[in-house]
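Review session, final week

We close the course with one last complete record, chosen because it touches almost every idea we covered. It is ABC3 transporter permease protein domain-containing protein, a protein from Methanosalsum zhilinae with 404 residues. Go through it on your own first, then we will talk.
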Amino acid sequence: MIKFKESLMLAFGSINSAKLRSALTALGIIIGVAAVVANLSLGASFDQYFTDELGEFGDNFIIVMAQDTGLFGNSQLEVIRRTQGVEDVSPLKQRSAEVEFRSVSRQITIEGTSQDLPDVLGINLESGNYFTDNNQFVAVVGNQVATERFDRPIGNRNSIDITFRRSDGTTVTQTFKVIGITEAPEPGALQTGFNPETSIFIPISAMNELLDETDYGAFAARAATPEEVRPVSDQIDRNLARSLGVPARDLDRDDVKPYSIINQADIVEQLDELTTALTVLITAVALIALLVGSIGIMNIMLVTVTERTKEIGLMKSLGFTYRDLLSLFLIEAMVLGLIGGILGAGLGLVGSFILEFSLGLPHVFPIYLIFTAFFVSVLIGLISGVYPANKAAKMNPVDALRSE
């Protein structure tokens, strides 16, 4: 019986004798494995990225948004504040307004909030302080607004003029004293609808006074622990529904309720579903490439068997058994698959690193991908080589030696 080491040497010798053909044969495996490795690595990087970015706002926040103007007021604020499991809550109101600083005007998002917002969403300041509910015409400026939106940087103790447009079409301008600047975002930070770095925060009481309004647009709440986020969200939902006269049967109908509730757990779940769908789609395309690669290996192995018919007959006449020849050609097919797997994994690793670097994503490469790539590529080689190897092993030595 031929030894495994000898079979391996013969397999490498056969592959080496037809380098170009072997390379083209392995190309399908290389492309398929590279695509799968790069895709799964990118998926892991996106998961880590979204987790890190959402973590900056804390992992236990809950946002309640009104669908209609005038829906939320102090009574709904108190309903949420009294909900069991709610640690902090802040009203929110967002408007786009004209901001003037040293004769330069820009349209900036203004967030009306309370003193509790930094605790709820984990907003940190680079300098200065956040306002209290006793303050009136003071502002905390987002870092990007302070450093990039105007000709000169905005600093603490500077004054800015904010002009709001009321619902009746009239405008009102008020001077605000800057008392704080938020921390600068990290490179590649997630941009969302609520972005502290690109907004200016003022007391919501001041915003409503200037707009001649009394309502709130949303609430930001914080649960005591991440595990309580969903139960607390559900309880807020029930309490608000009773407060606003929403029937209990409509609690699960987002198209009927006049408000919506989101939390980090829901966001992470939605992002996971999105990345999973993309991963499945791209992996399916990559698997097609692997299928093409496996057909290529089978095809080239059949060609090899045909070309080596006399050699196979000679081997049989020298005492090579069915099992010897079967293992010889199977090992050759598996080596082709393994070569494709090694090159594909390396290409996928480099490709994912380049894409992650260019997109500003954390570099996450699960080590199991390497072993999975090797296992799958060898398995494909094994499956693709069964028919050609069996054909070679079953040859009649006399007929093989007589072939031209």
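Two points worth writing down before the exam:
DSSP finds twelve helices and ten strands in the chain.
Residues 187-193 have pLDDT under 50 and may be disordered.
Good luck, everyone.
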